[in-house]
Amino acid sequence: MHFIPEELDDYVVKHSENEPELLQQLGRETYQKILQPRMLSGHYQGRVLSIISKLVNPKNILEIGTYTGYSALCLAEGMQASGALHTIDINEELADFQRKYFNKSDHGNQIFQHIGDALEIIPTLNTIFDLVFIDADKENYPSYFNIVIDKLNPGGIILSDNVLWSGKILEDLKPDDMATKALLEYNILLKNDDRVETVVLPIRDGLTISRKVK
Ligand SMILES: C[S@@+](CC[C@H](N)C(=O)[O-])C[C@H]1O[C@@H](n2cnc3c(N)ncnc32)[C@H](O)[C@@H]1O
Predict the structure, then answer these.
(1) Which domain of life is it from (predicted)?
(2) Is residue 3 pLDDT above 90, yes or no?
(3) Is 163 in the pocket of ligand 1 (CB under 6 A)?
(4) Strand, helix or coil at 158?
(5) Residue 90 CB–ligand 1 contact under 6 Å
C-alpha cells in the first residue's frame, strides 16, 4: 500500500540509499523460491532499518520474525563489533535459507537463529537488548511488547512493523479479524504506556519507533 502518491514514493526511494547487492540477491531468491515473498521488508524499509540501527549502534538486537533474513541483515549493519543479533522464527523450513545469507554477510558469526514460538523463546534469552524489531504474528504484538519491555535497556528502541495494516486500522472491525483487533490494541498500548515514548511513521505498512524512557 502507498500512503503517499506512487510518484512521490518512487522519488523517495530513488533519493535514498541503494539496496546492497547481497540483499538484492536475497530478495530475488525469496521471490523465486519462498511462499509469501511480500513479507520481506525490501529495499526502502530495509534502508530505514539500517540507518536506525546505525544511529542506535546497539550491542544486542532482538528480532521477532526472521522470515528469509532480510531485515536481520539490515539491522546487523548498525550493530557493535562485539554485539549479537538474536532472531526468532516459528518456521523451521526457513533456517537454511537464512543461514546461507547470514554467512555471506559480514555479520554471520554474530547472528543467532532461534526456531520456535517467540513467546516461548524470548523468556529463555539471557540478554538485555538495545534494539528490538517486532515483525511476526500481529495477534501477539501486545504480548511481545509486554515480555520485551523488561529485556530492554533504558534508551533502548522497539521498532514495530505493519502497525497501519494496509489502513485496516481505520475500517470497521470485523469480529473475526484478530490481527487488526490486536494492532488497534497495540497502537493504544504504545501510546499510553509511560515507559516508552512512541512515534508512528507512515513508512510502507506503518513502522512505530518506541524508546524506553524508564
Ligand atoms: C513478516 S515476516 C518477517 C519478515 C522479516 N522481518 C523481514 O522484514 O524480512 C513474519 C515472520 O514471522 C514468523 N512468525 C509468525 N508467528 C510467529 C511466532 N509465534 N513466533 C515466531 N515467529 C513467528 C513467520 O514464520 C514469518 O516468517
Answers:
(1) Bacteria
(2) no
(3) no
(4) strand
(5) yes
